[in-house]
Amino acid sequence: MNALVALCHFCELHGPRTLFCTEAVHPPSPSPPQPGPAIPGDRDREADREGEGLTMRANSSATQGADMCEGCRSLPASHPGFVSVDGETGIRYLSHQHPRQPQLFSVVRQACVRSLSCEVCPGREGPIFFGDEQHGFVFSHTFFIKDSLARGFQRWYSIVVVAMDRIYLINSWPFLLRHLRLTIQSLQNTALKVFDSEQCVCPQRAVRMNSAFSPAVFPHQRSGNAARSLTSLTQHPNLWASLHSSFSWLLKACGSRLTEKLLEGAPTEDTLVLIERQTEQEEEMSGWDGAEGGVSNPQPSQSESVQAKDFQFDDGRQEDILGPKFKSLRHLRQVLGASDFRQLAWHVLMGNQVIWRGADPGLIQSAFNVLKALLPVGCVRAVPYSPHYEEAYRCNFLGLSPDVPIPAHVSSSGPTLLNKMEVALSNENLSVEVVSLCLLCLKEEWMNKVKVLFKFSKVDGRGKEDTQKVLALLGATGPGEEDNVRLLKFWMTGLSKLYKSHLMTAVRVGERTLSQ
Amino acid sequence: VKHIRMISEGSRDTEDGSNDIRLIVYQDCERRGRQVLFDSKAIHKLDTSEPYTRPAPDVTMLGEMMFGSVSMSYKGSTLKIHHIRSPPQLMVSKVFSTRFGSSTSESTNTLQDSFESMSQTFPSHTSSIGCNDSVFPAHSNPVDMPSRGHSEDGDSGIARSASLSSLLATPLPSPGSSFSSGLSSSYQRRLLRSQATSLQHGPVPRWNTEEMFSLSDESCSSNPVMIQRKKIAISIIISLPEREEENHNFQEFFFSHFPLFESHMNKLKTAIERAMIVCRRIAESSQRVQVYLCRVMEALGEFRMTVWNLYMAPRISEPVWLSMISQSTERNLLCQRFLKEMSLLMEHGAKSQFLSALLTAVLTHHLAWVSTVMPSSMPPIKSACQKPASQTADLLAKSHPYNPLWAQLGDLYGALGSPVRVCRTVVVGRRRELVQRVLYVLSYFIRCSDLQEHVQPQEQMDNPASPCTSQTTDPTPEKPDPLKPTACVIGTSEKALNSDLGNAIPGTSVEQSHEILLTDTKSTSPSPSVESTAVRSEFTEMAQECFGEDSDSVGGGLEHILASQSPLLHRVQFHIGSPSETANDGQAGGLTGAGCGRGLDRKLHQRLLSDIRRNESSDSALGDSDDEETSAQELYVATEQNEYELPLPRQVQTNVNHFGRSLLGGYCPQYMPDFALHGISSDLRLKQCLMADLEHTVLHPALDEPVAEALCIVADTDRLSVQVVTSQKRVCEGGRLGRDVMVSNLVHTLITSVLQLYALNIASDFCVMHLEDRLQEVYFKSRSLAEYLRGQTRVPVKELGLALGIESSDIPLLAAVASTHSPYVAQILL
Fold first, then answer.
1. Chain A window 373-412: which residues touch B at a Cβ cutoff of 8 Å?
2. Which residue intervals define the domain UDENN FNIP1/2-type in the entry (chain B) (predicted)?
3. What angle do CA B293, B295, B296 make, to 5 degrees?
């Protein structure tokens, strides 16, 4: 939690003092924190000093040592303090007598004084929340600790939790109260045992009744023990280490008390297919490593080299290609001319094999790079540049050098999607980024239709009549219907395995529950 | 007088005359001391000539608690919460500095004088009288709280901070970065919240710090004069149920819903301000007091009713979205019921496109759905239909803690766009079943994160909160080597942690102390958390029972229900006031008796105060602090070598009563201002209150951040109309509340095709997946729109249609969605 915890004490000699403070130091933010507004404040401070300046100066002449006694101290000055590290988040919990972050020093001091000198708690032991935007917000719990040598046989302490997030701190009231009570009861009970044993040995009431009473020197009379440390009151040599653990745990537990389950959208089919391909490739690679004992990397077979090329066939590679290249779909369209481009795009969308012949492999690859944006990732199977012809079932994008012969069997209107794509491409007012986002929209829209058609025809196996209804509700009927259906069927081949298998299992589970 | 009686009946005076919730207005004046300006407990018999009786005997003590034993010179407002043990009460106080118009200074004195003139019935009751036996004078000099970066500008009100320009300047990362990183605005909001409330920057005055108590009827621009030494405290005292379990339930509710309580308290404060201003104009003194009391009682009645409703109103027992994400096993059944209800609704309002209009409005304004359709880059862990949980958000919560309850409230109100708008939806209709169907369907589209609570082990021995138990360790090495780097991972070395405790505490038997501690816990600790969470859901069920469909009492309205002695009333009734004065006096006596800690003389106190100030002015004033300025960053790195490292104790989950469960209301007897969604039978009270509520929301948002506009979607199932009411436009044609909603074609085709698939007997689970896919399309379209608008100043709507194929009916929806990931969109399309 974005807060700190401090143990404070009302010293009979020195008033309210901060004894022990545990703060959380966070690792650097994911993005640079906003610098808060400038904090001048000097003018205000000057104004606040007026009238009470004399008192202040008189007091500041007192040495530090004189302002401290055993009761005001937790760790000796030489003690380096304690730290606990949350390995998962990198948050460090630090404990010292005073906070190490200078901006928190006065905040804690303020909280300490208010909790023990200003705020009124009925019964003097219990929880209070107080604070304002300027000084931060404080959950304070005051309590007594038994001390056989103290006036009234007890000393007054408080534990304060300081935070800037008012609402969070108030929301946490029941939690903080529950757990601080445990901390306090544990301290009180331990001290009570010490108190009882001390009273057995030397009943203080009798001692005090018999000694002469002198109000002026009363607190100093027993100066040897006048202000005993909490360690002495509890006879707990590792008290501060334990308190550090308790306070650190409290900060962590309060911050993680409530957890949010925040959902994101399902990944797109493109993302899924890419992940699947990557996994397949990794599996195959590790298969090789296993077989060969990881010693040598044999020459990959041809099918793998195709696949490997498939992977290189990706964004960012284009910069590496020297010579002329296509920069965008629009560029390609400008070069080819509108009607040729449309022809080309039509075949791409329909899943027909596109063979690009040329002497410059870089140029061909750049053309494929821009064209593949028209299709779902799962529909793209490319061999950017091959020394011989590859069959259409192996690839729908094929680059060939001019001298490679094409088998005879290969040599042989548009869908709604194409028309919409053309509108975006032909509009010179749209930037390349906008066009690619428009393409994304169109592709996702049609991919969602593909999913429905897949579910309907392949999974549920519905008849022709029903299928026609679905096509109508998907907006795939009407002019270009035949092409639309062709496109949808081709795109079905691009669905991720995960998606397809999920739908299949869902049906099987459904059948099983029905038959039972 | 008549008026007061009517309200007090409405607010259900209990048999002994005390009320559930008590209001005290207190003044702390430098010259005149402390004075009670209002105490609802002291208002006795309203039909007599003496409306005001003697103040309750506990007011002096309460005054001390409100103002503190030493008054502060801080000029902003201060918030305090006290827990009073006997009788069990919670007291929430806000202390304000006063502000007067230049022409009307010292205006409360008029009222005060009026009270004093009625000395028989209302004796002046200053704390200095009541505190004679106190060792500590109530009026020592104020503690000077140093102002850090605090502007003295008196007229910096809410108006300025909520202005649109400041909202648009919200430090969001540049649109470019959010575009490429694909981070949702819900993530951004959470990150920014964590940073804004970080301790690492120290106190940074925020947007609403300078709230004052205004005693001027002139506008703030009239150069107000501040009287620094006069403060007014407004306290609400809620009597807690005597039974431990009820007490626990109410407190859990109160503290988790505090922002809502506070917002209503602010409303009450505004009403009190107005009452004081208005009554000043009345010359005749007894009449002046009457008017004042009347107005304040009216406001208090309102407050009591709102709080009561907030706690008691029926809730949607199974909100679709939250149930789907929390119980994946029930998913198929949930999908079936959801689609069935939605298709029934679609048929019902087919002609008027009621459902399409309503969903257009809801998707445009309750924007939390957007981040739930933004495509994840992570593969799903379980099955393709399950949306992945956001891992970035999860990591953020761990490393940069923010308040999940706050985040959830923002989600429900749809505060994810830019500028920040908050929205509620009210469904009006006489046909209960129909309204409930609408509510049920909407509970799928009005989304928020699900919250879970991690419960700690309750036994003291195992609880890491106790320092003197088995958690205790002695990790301090005998010869500490501070330079030795340590790399301890939390939780992995728990056993190593519990090192030889027995040896660590010489002379005492560990076992023995454990026994003592353990028995103590049993006798005093509150009921275990696990049990308490069960109790909460039980309460919900009880509420359902009380207000549920089969309850005959519902028709009679709230008052009727309250009058009937349902079992629920016994469970949650919280009596107000202190029925046993003796107990209270005992407390006060105990205080002075044990007041040794406070028994310091004034001189010492003065010294302490100057100590504080000295420490403020120079950070090195106390010996143990480092002299050099260490930045948090340096500190983070520096700690590797110095401190003794101790491992963190481990944390040992349940559903918690959160806003997602509490602010999705059912068919309620009366309009309520807090609910993200609820249904009512008549819009009578809605029409009376809505505009004022929306304005109040903008001025005092429960969200604790500036809000540019508050909206309310009002769906009328009788007339099949959907209107959006805004805090910005007051006048509407023909006396109508708001403007009609234009149906988005995208939304209409979306619902139509989902329901057609459902009609074709496609598995409902698949239909819901398709619905999510279609919502994702809306998100992608908003991305195109945002990209198109980037860098532009103004774009004609027609152009959007031509360029992007976006229909004009879809533009408000797409622009709102776009503003969640690309804040600049709002400026262009404004």
1. none
2. 16-821
3. 65
One-letter-per-residue 3-state SS of B37-54: EEECCCECCCCCCCCECC
Of the CA atoms within 13 Å of residue A125, those in its CB half-sphere come to: 13
Q: Is the ipTM of this complex over 0.95?
A: no
In Å, how far are A63, A68, A77, A363, B625 from B622, measured between CA atoms? 10, 10, 12, 73, 6
Strand order from edge to edge, sheet including B739-740: B664-668, B677-680, B421-428, B709-716, B721-726, B739-740
Q: Which range, A117-131, B93-107, B577-591, is most confident? A: A117-131
| Residues of A with Cβ-Cβ distance to B399 under 8 angstroms | 26-27, 89-91
- pLDDT at residue B568, rounded to an integer: 31
Decide the pairing of beta strands B33-39 and B21-29: antiparallel
CB A186 within 8 A of CB B460: yes
Asked if the model's pLDDT at residue A49 lies above 50, the reply is: no
| Cα B186 from Cα B195, distance rounded (Å) | 14
**CA separation, residue A202 to residues A154, A155, A210, A219 (Å):** 16, 19, 13, 19
The Cα angle at residue B785 between residues B782 and B787, in degrees rounded to 5: 110
Q: How far does CA B143 lie from the centroid of its chain? A: 30
* Partner-chain contact A275 B379, CB within 8 Å: yes
CB pairs under 8 A between A and B: 626
How far B35 CA lies from chain A's nearest CA (Å)?
Answer: 18
Question: Prior bond to B419 cis, omega within 30?
Answer: yes
Which run of H or E residues covers position B213? strand B213-214
Residue pair A474/A487 in contact (Cβ under 8 Å)? The answer is: no
- Measured CA to CA, the distance from residue A50 to residue A146 in angstroms comes to 41
Of A343, A368, A356, A374, the residue nearest A490 (C-alpha): A374
Beta-bridge partner residues of A140: A128, A160
pLDDT tens digit sequence for A264-279: 888 888 888 888 888 8
What distance in Å separates the CA atoms of residue A98 and residue B104, rounded to the nearest whole number? 47
Kindly state whether A52 is in contact with chain B, defined as any CB-CB distance less than 8 angstroms: yes
